Amino acid sequence: MYTQSFNVPDQAGQKTVAVTPSTEDAELMARFDARIDADGRIEPQDWMPEAYRKTLVRQISQHAHSEIVGMLPEGNWISRAPSLKRKAILIAKVQDEGGHGLYLYSAAETLGTSRDQLLEGLHSGKAKYSSIFNYPTLNWADVGAIGWLVDGAAIMNQIPLCRCSYGPYSRAMVRVCKEESFHQRQGYEALLVMMKGTQAQREMVQDAVNRLWWKCLAMFGPPDADSPNSAQGMRWGIKRISNDDLRQKFVDATVPQAKVLGITLPDPDLKWNEERQHYDYGQIDWQEFWDTVEGNGPCNKERLATRVKAHNDGQWVRDAAQAYARKQQERAMKEAA
Amino acid sequence: MTTTALKEWPLWEIFVRSKQGLEHKHCGSLHAADASQALHMARDVYTRRQEGVSIWVVPSASITASNPDEKGEFFDPAADKIYRHPTFYEIPDEVGHM
Questions:
Q1: Over the stretch B6-45, which tens digit does the pLDDT of each residue have?
Q2: Residue B1 is nearest to which of A95, A123, A324, comparing CB atoms?
Q3: CA distance B98 to chain A (A)
Q4: Which chain A residues are within 8 Å of B6, Cβ to Cβ?
Q5: Helix A300-313 crosses helix A50-75 at what angle (to 10 degrees)?
Q6: Closest-CA residue of chain A to B70
Q7: What confidence category does residue A112 fall into, taking pLDDT thresholds of 50, 70 and 90?
Q8: Which residues of chain B make contact with A327, given a CB cutoff of 8 A?
Q9: Which domains are delineated in chain B?
Q10: What is the pTM of this model?
Q11: What string of DSSP letters covers B4-60?
Protein backbone atom coordinates (compact mmCIF):
# COMPACT_ATOMS: atom_id res chain seq x y z
CA MET A 1 0.00 0.00 0.00
CA TYR A 2 1.19 3.30 -0.96
CA THR A 3 1.19 6.99 -0.46
CA GLN A 4 3.37 9.58 -1.93
CA SER A 5 3.47 12.42 0.43
CA PHE A 6 0.06 13.70 -0.46
CA ASN A 7 0.53 17.38 -0.41
CA VAL A 8 0.20 17.26 -4.15
CA PRO A 9 -2.63 19.52 -5.29
CA ASP A 10 -5.33 17.86 -7.39
CA GLN A 11 -5.43 20.70 -9.88
CA ALA A 12 -2.28 21.24 -11.85
CA GLY A 13 -0.61 24.61 -11.60
CA GLN A 14 -1.40 25.11 -7.92
CA LYS A 15 1.84 23.69 -6.69
CA THR A 16 2.74 26.68 -4.61
CA VAL A 17 -0.65 27.66 -3.24
CA ALA A 18 -0.63 27.31 0.50
CA VAL A 19 -3.73 26.45 2.52
CA THR A 20 -5.86 29.56 2.94
CA PRO A 21 -6.47 30.74 6.50
CA SER A 22 -9.99 30.16 7.75
CA THR A 23 -12.37 32.80 9.02
CA GLU A 24 -14.29 30.53 11.35
CA ASP A 25 -15.42 31.31 14.79
CA ALA A 26 -12.40 32.16 16.92
CA GLU A 27 -13.59 30.30 20.00
CA LEU A 28 -14.13 27.03 18.14
CA MET A 29 -10.79 27.54 16.44
CA ALA A 30 -9.07 28.06 19.77
CA ARG A 31 -10.62 24.88 21.16
CA PHE A 32 -9.57 22.96 18.05
CA ASP A 33 -6.00 24.29 18.27
CA ALA A 34 -5.82 23.43 21.94
CA ARG A 35 -6.83 19.88 21.26
CA ILE A 36 -4.27 19.56 18.47
CA ASP A 37 -1.56 21.07 20.70
CA ALA A 38 -2.39 18.53 23.41
CA ASP A 39 -1.91 15.80 20.77
CA GLY A 40 -5.63 15.00 21.02
CA ARG A 41 -7.72 13.44 18.27
CA ILE A 42 -10.43 14.97 16.13
CA GLU A 43 -13.49 12.83 15.43
CA PRO A 44 -15.99 13.17 12.56
CA GLN A 45 -18.71 15.06 14.49
CA ASP A 46 -16.26 17.52 16.04
CA TRP A 47 -15.96 21.06 14.76
CA MET A 48 -12.92 21.50 12.51
CA PRO A 49 -11.66 24.34 10.32
CA GLU A 50 -12.79 24.00 6.71
CA ALA A 51 -9.20 23.95 5.49
CA TYR A 52 -8.40 21.01 7.80
CA ARG A 53 -11.41 19.14 6.44
CA LYS A 54 -10.46 19.91 2.84
CA THR A 55 -6.85 18.89 3.33
CA LEU A 56 -7.91 15.59 4.87
CA VAL A 57 -10.46 14.82 2.15
CA ARG A 58 -7.83 15.47 -0.48
CA GLN A 59 -5.10 13.49 1.25
CA ILE A 60 -7.25 10.52 2.29
CA SER A 61 -8.93 10.28 -1.09
CA GLN A 62 -5.60 10.47 -2.94
CA HIS A 63 -4.39 7.76 -0.63
CA ALA A 64 -7.48 5.63 -1.32
CA HIS A 65 -7.18 6.14 -5.08
CA SER A 66 -3.55 5.03 -4.88
CA GLU A 67 -4.59 1.78 -3.27
CA ILE A 68 -7.18 1.14 -5.95
CA VAL A 69 -4.99 2.09 -8.91
CA GLY A 70 -2.12 0.28 -7.19
CA MET A 71 -3.92 -2.99 -7.81
CA LEU A 72 -3.43 -2.61 -11.57
CA PRO A 73 0.34 -2.91 -12.15
CA GLU A 74 0.56 -6.01 -9.98
CA GLY A 75 -2.79 -7.37 -11.08
CA ASN A 76 -1.29 -7.63 -14.55
CA TRP A 77 0.95 -10.40 -13.23
CA ILE A 78 -1.63 -12.58 -11.47
CA SER A 79 -2.24 -14.73 -14.54
CA ARG A 80 1.49 -14.94 -15.26
CA ALA A 81 2.86 -15.63 -11.77
CA PRO A 82 5.61 -18.28 -11.99
CA SER A 83 4.01 -20.73 -9.53
CA LEU A 84 0.74 -21.43 -7.79
CA LYS A 85 2.32 -20.26 -4.52
CA ARG A 86 3.36 -16.91 -5.96
CA LYS A 87 -0.03 -16.54 -7.59
CA ALA A 88 -1.88 -17.11 -4.30
CA ILE A 89 0.43 -14.61 -2.56
CA LEU A 90 -0.07 -12.02 -5.28
CA ILE A 91 -3.85 -12.40 -5.25
CA ALA A 92 -3.84 -11.94 -1.45
CA LYS A 93 -1.69 -8.82 -1.77
CA VAL A 94 -3.80 -7.27 -4.50
CA GLN A 95 -6.93 -8.04 -2.48
CA ASP A 96 -5.33 -6.29 0.51
CA GLU A 97 -4.77 -3.19 -1.62
CA GLY A 98 -8.44 -3.19 -2.55
CA GLY A 99 -9.31 -3.54 1.14
CA HIS A 100 -7.00 -0.67 2.04
CA GLY A 101 -8.74 1.47 -0.54
CA LEU A 102 -12.07 0.65 1.10
CA TYR A 103 -10.87 1.51 4.63
CA LEU A 104 -9.63 4.82 3.31
CA TYR A 105 -12.72 5.72 1.28
CA SER A 106 -14.77 5.08 4.43
CA ALA A 107 -12.48 7.35 6.42
CA ALA A 108 -12.83 10.08 3.78
CA GLU A 109 -16.60 9.71 3.80
CA THR A 110 -16.73 10.56 7.51
CA LEU A 111 -15.69 14.06 6.45
CA GLY A 112 -18.91 14.60 4.57
CA THR A 113 -18.01 13.54 1.05
CA SER A 114 -19.71 10.63 -0.71
CA ARG A 115 -18.22 7.52 -2.29
CA ASP A 116 -19.68 8.58 -5.64
CA GLN A 117 -17.99 11.97 -5.42
CA LEU A 118 -14.69 10.33 -4.53
CA LEU A 119 -14.86 7.87 -7.41
CA GLU A 120 -15.95 10.61 -9.78
CA GLY A 121 -12.83 12.55 -8.79
CA LEU A 122 -10.64 9.59 -9.66
CA HIS A 123 -12.43 8.60 -12.85
CA SER A 124 -12.59 12.08 -14.29
CA GLY A 125 -8.86 12.53 -13.73
CA LYS A 126 -9.40 15.45 -11.33
CA ALA A 127 -8.00 13.62 -8.30
CA LYS A 128 -4.42 12.43 -8.07
CA TYR A 129 -3.00 9.10 -7.01
CA SER A 130 0.55 8.00 -6.33
CA SER A 131 2.64 8.60 -9.44
CA ILE A 132 4.57 5.36 -8.93
CA PHE A 133 1.68 3.44 -10.53
CA ASN A 134 2.06 5.26 -13.79
CA TYR A 135 5.09 3.16 -14.65
CA PRO A 136 4.84 -0.27 -16.28
CA THR A 137 5.62 -3.63 -14.64
CA LEU A 138 7.80 -5.13 -17.34
CA ASN A 139 9.00 -8.40 -15.82
CA TRP A 140 8.21 -10.69 -12.89
CA ALA A 141 10.94 -9.10 -10.80
CA ASP A 142 8.93 -5.86 -10.89
CA VAL A 143 6.33 -7.54 -8.70
CA GLY A 144 8.97 -8.41 -6.11
CA ALA A 145 10.58 -4.98 -6.40
CA ILE A 146 7.22 -3.26 -5.89
CA GLY A 147 6.68 -5.23 -2.69
CA TRP A 148 10.17 -4.55 -1.40
CA LEU A 149 10.64 -0.92 -2.46
CA VAL A 150 7.25 0.61 -3.16
CA ASP A 151 5.53 -1.00 -0.19
CA GLY A 152 8.67 -0.37 1.85
CA ALA A 153 8.48 3.33 1.03
CA ALA A 154 4.76 3.30 1.77
CA ILE A 155 5.34 1.76 5.20
CA MET A 156 7.79 4.55 6.06
CA ASN A 157 5.11 7.04 5.11
CA GLN A 158 2.22 5.30 6.76
CA ILE A 159 3.60 4.47 10.18
CA PRO A 160 3.63 8.13 11.24
CA LEU A 161 0.08 8.44 9.83
CA CYS A 162 -1.09 5.97 12.50
CA ARG A 163 -0.69 8.94 14.88
CA CYS A 164 -2.54 11.37 12.61
CA SER A 165 -4.80 13.79 14.46
CA TYR A 166 -7.91 12.68 12.57
CA GLY A 167 -9.31 9.59 14.32
CA PRO A 168 -10.82 7.65 11.40
CA TYR A 169 -7.69 8.16 9.26
CA SER A 170 -5.32 7.08 12.01
CA ARG A 171 -7.44 3.99 12.78
CA ALA A 172 -7.50 3.03 9.10
CA MET A 173 -3.71 3.42 9.02
CA VAL A 174 -3.24 1.13 12.02
CA ARG A 175 -5.19 -1.54 10.20
CA VAL A 176 -3.27 -0.96 6.97
CA CYS A 177 0.16 -1.01 8.60
CA LYS A 178 -0.58 -4.36 10.24
CA GLU A 179 -1.11 -5.86 6.80
CA GLU A 180 1.67 -4.02 5.06
CA SER A 181 4.59 -5.92 6.47
CA PHE A 182 3.49 -9.03 4.57
CA HIS A 183 3.59 -7.02 1.35
CA GLN A 184 7.16 -5.94 1.78
CA ARG A 185 8.46 -9.28 2.99
CA GLN A 186 6.83 -11.31 0.23
CA GLY A 187 8.38 -8.98 -2.36
CA TYR A 188 11.84 -9.11 -0.88
CA GLU A 189 11.67 -12.88 -0.55
CA ALA A 190 10.53 -13.27 -4.17
CA LEU A 191 13.63 -11.30 -5.22
CA LEU A 192 15.90 -13.38 -2.96
CA VAL A 193 14.64 -16.50 -4.73
CA MET A 194 15.36 -14.98 -8.13
CA MET A 195 18.86 -13.94 -7.04
CA LYS A 196 19.58 -17.60 -6.29
CA GLY A 197 18.49 -18.52 -9.81
CA THR A 198 20.12 -18.01 -13.20
CA GLN A 199 22.18 -15.07 -14.38
CA ALA A 200 19.21 -13.96 -16.49
CA GLN A 201 17.00 -13.91 -13.40
CA ARG A 202 19.53 -11.88 -11.43
CA GLU A 203 19.64 -9.41 -14.30
CA MET A 204 15.86 -9.12 -14.21
CA VAL A 205 16.01 -8.18 -10.53
CA GLN A 206 18.70 -5.57 -11.16
CA ASP A 207 16.72 -4.19 -14.09
CA ALA A 208 13.54 -3.86 -12.03
CA VAL A 209 15.40 -2.13 -9.20
CA ASN A 210 17.15 0.21 -11.65
CA ARG A 211 13.83 1.33 -13.05
CA LEU A 212 11.99 1.67 -9.73
CA TRP A 213 14.59 3.08 -7.33
CA TRP A 214 14.35 6.78 -8.20
CA LYS A 215 10.60 6.64 -8.53
CA CYS A 216 10.42 5.24 -4.99
CA LEU A 217 12.52 8.10 -3.64
CA ALA A 218 10.14 10.53 -5.34
CA MET A 219 7.17 8.83 -3.60
CA PHE A 220 7.99 10.77 -0.45
CA GLY A 221 7.03 13.96 -2.21
CA PRO A 222 8.91 17.15 -3.09
CA PRO A 223 11.84 18.34 -0.93
CA ASP A 224 10.77 20.09 2.27
CA ALA A 225 11.77 23.45 0.84
CA ASP A 226 9.24 22.99 -2.00
CA SER A 227 6.36 21.67 0.10
CA PRO A 228 4.30 24.70 1.06
CA ASN A 229 1.54 22.61 2.65
CA SER A 230 3.86 20.52 4.79
CA ALA A 231 4.18 23.04 7.61
CA GLN A 232 0.41 23.35 7.91
CA GLY A 233 0.07 19.56 7.83
CA MET A 234 2.60 19.34 10.64
CA ARG A 235 0.79 22.04 12.60
CA TRP A 236 -2.43 20.05 12.32
CA GLY A 237 -0.87 16.76 13.30
CA ILE A 238 -1.73 15.25 9.93
CA LYS A 239 1.89 14.99 8.95
CA ARG A 240 4.39 13.96 11.61
CA ILE A 241 7.70 13.59 9.78
CA SER A 242 8.90 15.72 6.85
CA ASN A 243 9.26 14.37 3.30
CA ASP A 244 13.05 14.60 3.36
CA ASP A 245 13.36 12.93 6.75
CA LEU A 246 11.17 10.04 5.66
CA ARG A 247 13.12 9.72 2.42
CA GLN A 248 16.37 9.58 4.39
CA LYS A 249 14.97 6.90 6.69
CA PHE A 250 13.96 4.86 3.67
CA VAL A 251 17.39 5.14 2.04
CA ASP A 252 19.15 4.22 5.28
CA ALA A 253 16.93 1.19 5.77
CA THR A 254 17.14 -0.01 2.17
CA VAL A 255 20.88 0.12 1.46
CA PRO A 256 21.74 -2.82 3.77
CA GLN A 257 18.81 -4.81 2.38
CA ALA A 258 20.12 -4.28 -1.16
CA LYS A 259 23.50 -5.56 -0.04
CA VAL A 260 22.01 -8.78 1.36
CA LEU A 261 20.03 -9.18 -1.83
CA GLY A 262 23.19 -8.74 -3.88
CA ILE A 263 22.12 -5.93 -6.18
CA THR A 264 23.37 -2.38 -6.59
CA LEU A 265 21.16 0.67 -6.20
CA PRO A 266 21.45 2.84 -9.34
CA ASP A 267 22.96 5.92 -7.75
CA PRO A 268 26.70 6.68 -8.09
CA ASP A 269 26.39 9.30 -5.34
CA LEU A 270 25.00 6.86 -2.80
CA LYS A 271 27.51 6.58 0.04
CA TRP A 272 27.72 6.53 3.82
CA ASN A 273 28.29 9.92 5.41
CA GLU A 274 30.12 9.35 8.66
CA GLU A 275 29.46 12.86 9.89
CA ARG A 276 25.70 12.80 9.30
CA GLN A 277 25.41 9.13 10.21
CA HIS A 278 23.21 8.74 7.13
CA TYR A 279 23.61 7.74 3.51
CA ASP A 280 24.02 10.57 1.02
CA TYR A 281 22.16 10.14 -2.23
CA GLY A 282 21.99 11.86 -5.61
CA GLN A 283 19.56 14.28 -7.23
CA ILE A 284 15.97 13.21 -7.86
CA ASP A 285 14.51 14.19 -11.22
CA TRP A 286 11.60 16.34 -10.01
CA GLN A 287 10.69 17.44 -13.50
CA GLU A 288 9.88 13.84 -14.34
CA PHE A 289 7.91 13.50 -11.11
CA TRP A 290 5.74 16.52 -11.86
CA ASP A 291 5.28 15.48 -15.49
CA THR A 292 3.94 12.16 -14.26
CA VAL A 293 1.76 13.73 -11.57
CA GLU A 294 0.30 15.98 -14.22
CA GLY A 295 -0.74 13.06 -16.36
CA ASN A 296 2.17 12.54 -18.73
CA GLY A 297 3.82 9.45 -17.30
CA PRO A 298 4.14 6.32 -19.45
CA CYS A 299 0.98 4.64 -18.12
CA ASN A 300 -1.30 7.42 -16.79
CA LYS A 301 -3.86 7.06 -19.56
CA GLU A 302 -3.80 3.29 -19.56
CA ARG A 303 -4.25 3.04 -15.78
CA LEU A 304 -7.15 5.44 -15.68
CA ALA A 305 -8.82 3.84 -18.70
CA THR A 306 -8.48 0.37 -17.13
CA ARG A 307 -9.93 1.61 -13.87
CA VAL A 308 -12.88 3.39 -15.51
CA LYS A 309 -13.61 0.37 -17.69
CA ALA A 310 -13.58 -1.96 -14.67
CA HIS A 311 -15.98 0.35 -12.88
CA ASN A 312 -18.33 0.67 -15.83
CA ASP A 313 -18.21 -3.05 -16.53
CA GLY A 314 -19.29 -3.61 -12.93
CA GLN A 315 -22.34 -1.36 -13.21
CA TRP A 316 -24.71 -4.27 -13.88
CA VAL A 317 -23.46 -6.04 -10.74
CA ARG A 318 -24.22 -2.99 -8.60
CA ASP A 319 -27.61 -2.58 -10.25
CA ALA A 320 -28.43 -6.26 -9.81
CA ALA A 321 -27.49 -6.21 -6.12
CA GLN A 322 -29.71 -3.23 -5.58
CA ALA A 323 -32.62 -4.78 -7.50
CA TYR A 324 -32.22 -7.99 -5.50
CA ALA A 325 -32.16 -6.11 -2.20
CA ARG A 326 -35.31 -4.24 -3.18
CA LYS A 327 -37.06 -7.45 -4.16
CA GLN A 328 -36.13 -9.17 -0.90
CA GLN A 329 -37.42 -6.20 1.03
CA GLU A 330 -40.72 -6.19 -0.85
CA ARG A 331 -41.13 -9.91 -0.28
CA ALA A 332 -40.47 -9.53 3.45
CA MET A 333 -43.04 -6.74 3.64
CA LYS A 334 -45.63 -8.80 1.77
CA GLU A 335 -45.09 -11.77 4.08
CA ALA A 336 -45.43 -9.55 7.13
CA ALA A 337 -48.70 -8.08 5.84
CA MET B 1 -13.32 10.27 -19.72
CA THR B 2 -16.92 9.69 -18.76
CA THR B 3 -18.47 7.34 -16.23
CA THR B 4 -22.04 6.18 -16.06
CA ALA B 5 -24.22 7.68 -13.33
CA LEU B 6 -23.22 6.30 -9.95
CA LYS B 7 -25.87 5.05 -7.58
CA GLU B 8 -24.76 4.50 -4.03
CA TRP B 9 -25.40 1.50 -1.91
CA PRO B 10 -26.29 2.46 1.67
CA LEU B 11 -23.59 2.67 4.35
CA TRP B 12 -23.23 0.05 7.10
CA GLU B 13 -21.25 0.11 10.33
CA ILE B 14 -19.31 -3.06 11.01
CA PHE B 15 -18.73 -4.62 14.43
CA VAL B 16 -16.44 -7.63 14.84
CA ARG B 17 -16.06 -10.03 17.76
CA SER B 18 -12.41 -11.04 17.64
CA LYS B 19 -12.89 -14.15 19.75
CA GLN B 20 -15.46 -15.92 21.87
CA GLY B 21 -15.77 -14.19 25.21
CA LEU B 22 -14.98 -10.70 23.90
CA GLU B 23 -17.45 -8.01 22.86
CA HIS B 24 -18.16 -6.92 19.32
CA LYS B 25 -16.09 -3.88 18.53
CA HIS B 26 -16.64 -1.23 15.88
CA CYS B 27 -14.01 -1.63 13.17
CA GLY B 28 -15.23 0.50 10.28
CA SER B 29 -17.91 0.90 7.66
CA LEU B 30 -18.72 -0.14 4.13
CA HIS B 31 -21.35 0.22 1.41
CA ALA B 32 -23.63 -2.69 0.54
CA ALA B 33 -27.01 -3.17 -1.09
CA ASP B 34 -28.51 -5.08 1.83
CA ALA B 35 -27.67 -6.69 5.16
CA SER B 36 -26.62 -10.08 3.86
CA GLN B 37 -24.34 -8.50 1.27
CA ALA B 38 -22.96 -6.24 3.98
CA LEU B 39 -22.07 -9.33 6.01
CA HIS B 40 -20.25 -10.93 3.10
CA MET B 41 -18.40 -7.75 2.28
CA ALA B 42 -17.49 -7.23 5.92
CA ARG B 43 -15.99 -10.71 6.02
CA ASP B 44 -13.80 -9.89 3.00
CA VAL B 45 -12.90 -6.36 4.05
CA TYR B 46 -12.38 -6.75 7.80
CA THR B 47 -11.58 -10.41 8.53
CA ARG B 48 -9.15 -11.52 5.82
CA ARG B 49 -6.74 -12.75 8.50
CA GLN B 50 -9.09 -14.42 10.94
CA GLU B 51 -9.68 -11.21 12.87
CA GLY B 52 -13.20 -12.30 13.80
CA VAL B 53 -15.56 -15.09 14.79
CA SER B 54 -18.73 -13.03 14.53
CA ILE B 55 -19.82 -9.90 12.66
CA TRP B 56 -22.66 -7.44 13.20
CA VAL B 57 -23.71 -5.06 10.45
CA VAL B 58 -25.87 -2.05 11.32
CA PRO B 59 -27.26 0.52 8.87
CA SER B 60 -25.30 3.70 9.63
CA ALA B 61 -28.53 5.68 9.37
CA SER B 62 -29.94 3.72 12.34
CA ILE B 63 -27.31 4.96 14.75
CA THR B 64 -28.23 7.81 17.06
CA ALA B 65 -25.17 9.58 18.43
CA SER B 66 -24.77 12.09 21.21
CA ASN B 67 -24.15 15.61 20.01
CA PRO B 68 -20.49 16.63 20.32
CA ASP B 69 -21.51 20.30 20.69
CA GLU B 70 -23.34 19.40 23.89
CA LYS B 71 -20.51 17.26 25.20
CA GLY B 72 -20.20 19.57 28.21
CA GLU B 73 -23.78 19.49 29.46
CA PHE B 74 -24.08 15.84 28.56
CA PHE B 75 -21.04 14.41 30.31
CA ASP B 76 -20.01 17.03 32.87
CA PRO B 77 -22.57 16.03 35.53
CA ALA B 78 -20.39 12.99 36.25
CA ALA B 79 -17.26 15.08 36.75
CA ASP B 80 -17.99 16.27 40.30
CA LYS B 81 -19.15 12.93 41.66
CA ILE B 82 -15.80 11.67 42.71
CA TYR B 83 -17.44 9.66 45.53
CA ARG B 84 -18.40 7.19 42.81
CA HIS B 85 -14.77 6.04 42.65
CA PRO B 86 -13.22 3.64 45.17
CA THR B 87 -10.19 5.90 45.65
CA PHE B 88 -12.46 8.53 47.29
CA TYR B 89 -12.54 6.49 50.49
CA GLU B 90 -9.67 6.32 52.95
CA ILE B 91 -9.32 2.95 54.57
CA PRO B 92 -6.67 2.24 57.28
CA ASP B 93 -3.63 0.39 55.96
CA GLU B 94 -4.09 -2.47 58.42
CA VAL B 95 -7.32 -3.42 56.66
CA GLY B 96 -5.21 -4.52 53.70
CA HIS B 97 -6.63 -4.91 50.23
CA MET B 98 -10.30 -4.03 49.91
A1: 468 999 999 999 999 999 999 999 999 999 999 999 999 9
A2: A123
A3: 35
A4: 115-116, 119-120
A5: 90
A6: A46
A7: very high
A8: none
A9: 11-95 (3.10.20.520)
A10: 0.89
A11: PPP-PPPEEEEEEE-STTS-EEEEEEEE-SSHHHHHHHHHHHH-TTS--SEEEEEEG
